[in-house]
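Chain X:
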Amino acid sequence: MRHPILISLCAAGAFALSACEQTAGNEVDRAFQDINVIDETNLNDVMLTASDPNEAVSYFQRAVGEKPDRLDLQRGLASSLVRAKRNTEAVAAWANVTKHKDATHADHVNHADALIRNNEWERAGDVLDGVPPTHETFKRYRLEAMIADSEKDWKKADSFYETAVGLTTQPANVMNNWGYSKLSRGDFEGAERLFTDAVRQDPSLFTAKNNLVLARGAQRNYALPVLPVTQVERAQLLYTLGLSAVKQGDTTIGQGLLKDAVETHPQHFEEAVRSLRALENKAG
């Protein structure tokens, strides 16, 4: 009499065990999916930072081809194209990103950045004009300043540069850009101050050191400022000063600076040697 009950219990137990196994299996599948998502995210980050730019482009092109609706992958492709200096493709990629339903104001700013890199200044200005003024970021104001520079609207450029400097904890590069803007418009003293500030913020920024020497040379100040420099950098700065002196018509001073550059450089300084020979031949 108890056999049907026993069979029923066994059947119920088997069903419960099957359900438990199915539930456990689903949980395992979900766990593996989560792991895959984490691994993919980490790989995306690695490709964006440490990878060769063109390898990153290939990776994200494949990923976007497989999952064309993924906004993070589209951004990865666009950023990688910028890093690879494939500017025309980067413009198109960021334009695609901005068409996505979840695109942000930052995506439009990145599109403007790509346009500037591709020398499409007017289009970049139009894109930034479409970004609400409430989107106040360092990158937005830095690009606005560069566009104002291109239009020679110095008052607006100074205002945007000043705002950009206040929105970052690492202002050296934007100070260098602002200084170059001052240099291009003939404000050599203002340029010198900004280049000095840029070097103070980032002593490794050689571009700012070289620009600082240019600003001093334009004022016929041919003494090297006190700067943290390597021997090679010192030779290159003397070379820049020498060329600046020659350009100002101070040929004798320029020759002396070029000789100092050749003697200071720890190896053969071909560019300085060539310039020095040209001056000596001209004088002869």
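Chain Y:
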Amino acid sequence: MPALSDTQNERDDRQLPIDRVGVRSLRFPLSIRDRDAAVQHTVATVSLAVDLPHHFKGTHMSRFVEVLHAHGKELTVSNIVAMPKELMKKLHADKAHVEMKFPYFRSKKAPVSGAEGLLDYGVIFEVNADKEKTDFVLTVEVPVTTLCPCSKAISARGAHNQRGTVTLAVRFSDPIWIEDLLELVESSASSELYSILKRPDEKHVTEAAYDNPVFVEDLVRNVAVKAKAHPRITWFRVEAENYESIHNHNAWAMIEGGAAPSAK
């Protein structure tokens, strides 16, 4: 059989390196150990990329998938962290990027009735590496309720509230549980969310939110204060977006703080 041409390795003369090239929107099984020492099985949407020097025409896309499948039928946190270095070696690259985004479920009991149900959150593992260091960022996407302090102050009856999403990204000195970050965010809002609420629970949640009004600005500040005080968090970025109930727009705020990433 005649040798097949390797077009990707042909020379490119445009003198333009590519910062990231690879594959995205792959779905792959993922196994995560939760704070209760149980193992949660979920499915991650995966992005894999490397840099490409200016003189190469293309990269070898199949090698990204080969690295992913080399870890068997299910990924874990430990082999996700190691994957950028494997990509660099496999594709002869100087930098590599791995991102895993997946749904994460918690069993939560309603505050009064104790009715139990699963609530889903978004979690992202992002790992970037070069020849000197590996940088890991953990991000959680947390749904919450906020009640408007201004609406409460000026209204004779009630106050408008809305559901929102808080996105908290962190770097850390020692391992941190996903649940710790979820609780940090939920305790900063007017109320946390539940999947099952009976009438006594609905009354409790409504009144709790009314007693704890927060602007979107309050929400990110509340999270930032707790992130700064956390002994393991070395850097954070918190964003909050409220899906406004009386406006045709969303309210948004962001705070970033902490030290720059260090080599690991």
